[in-house]
Design a protein that fits this description.
By secondary structure, the protein is α/β, with parallel strands linked by helices. The chain has a single domain, classed as Uracil-DNA glycosylase-like domain (Uracil-DNA Glycosylase, subunit E). Helices cover about 40% and strands about 10% of the residues. It contains 8 helices and 6 strands; from the N terminus they run H-H-E-E-H-H-E-H-E-H-E-E-H-H. Strands 1-3-2-4-6-5 form a 6-stranded mixed β-sheet, with helices on both faces. The radius of gyration is 16 Å and the shape is globular. About 45% of the residues are buried.
């Protein structure tokens, strides 16, 4: 499909209807039926989760996948889980979000100059997508990146987001990255008119142990704002 014939709305519609990965379909729907006690009275989304944010964004944030009881429940990535709480608070600190918290779509959250997407759009068992599932989802991120023509900086959350972001840059721009740059918190790679900046994923495993602190994430997001403001 040509870029002229594509749109973010088309990508969103295709993501939501996707059933390409039988294992992920079965898992996300099972979680949505069985729920957990604290959300037993809520209706789960139970479908793939599209990206969201400012269509004029200069910053793209790439995570791993929706959380089973976060995005898979609310229908919006990083919404309704601890990782999202940590991320949105840091985004608010640097002016990319109008409020520091968001528990569900429609609660007033608005992103400015930022768009958030996941490498894999369904909640995977154990937060571990299979390579085939990763590859099935990759075109969605590539299309979003191509359509977000203002994006200059990409913030990769974790090693998985880093690898997905680099693959998307190569696919969209034709840039060559050999050898593939290694993930490290604060790492930067310029390629194809983009700069990819890495940070640890804001999972509870990282935030509870101090591997990732709020000042660390704020610093990376502030760096992305600085890079995004620089002409390519």
């Amino acid at each position: 499909m040509s870029r002229a014939a594509d749109s973010l709305a088309r990508v969103t519609a295709e993501v939501v209807a996707c059933r390409r990965c039988p294992r992920l379909v079965a898992w996300r729907e099972c979680v949505a039926r069985e729920k957990v006690a604290r959300f037993r009275d809520e209706e789960y989304w139970g479908r793939p989760v599209p990206g969201f944010g400012d269509p004029e964004a200069r910053i793209l944030i790439v995570g791993l996948a929706p959380a089973a009881h976060g995005g898979n429940r609310t229908g919006r990535v990083f919404t309704g889980d601890a990782s999202g709480d940590f991320l949105f608070a840091a985004m608010h600190d640097v002016g990319l979000a109008n409020q520091p918290t968001s528990v569900r779509p429609g609660d007033g959250l608005e992103l400015t100059d930022a768009y958030i997407a996941a490498a894999v759009r369904c909640a995977p068992p154990g937060n571990k997508p299979l390579p085939s599932e990763r590859d099935n989802c990759a075109p969605y991120l590539q299309r979003e990146l191509a359509l977000l023509s203002g994006v200059r900086a990409i913030v990769a959350l974790g090693a998985y987001g880093w690898a997905a972001a680099l693959r998307a840059v190569v696919a969209v721009s034709g840039a060559e990255l050999r050898p593939r740059p290694k993930f490290a918190h604060g790492a930067e790679v310029a390629a194809g008119g983009y700069v990819v900046v890495a940070t640890y994923h804001p999972s509870q495993q990282n935030t509870f142990t101090g591997v990732l602190t709020r000042p660390m994430l704020v610093a990376v997001l502030a760096r992305a704002r600085e890079l995004a403001a620089t002409p390519p």
